[in-house]
Amino acid sequence: MFGKGKINITMQKSHYAPGDIISGNVALTLKKTVKAREVSISLIGEHKTTQTTPRAGGTMGGGGMSTSTTTRTVRIYDFKQQLDGEKEYSQGGEYRFEIKIPSDIMGGRPQMTETEGKLGQVLKVAQTAAAMTGAIPFQQIKWYLLAKLDVPRGLDISKKVDVTIG
Question: How far apart are CA 85 and CA 106, in angstroms?
Answer without folding.
Answer: 31
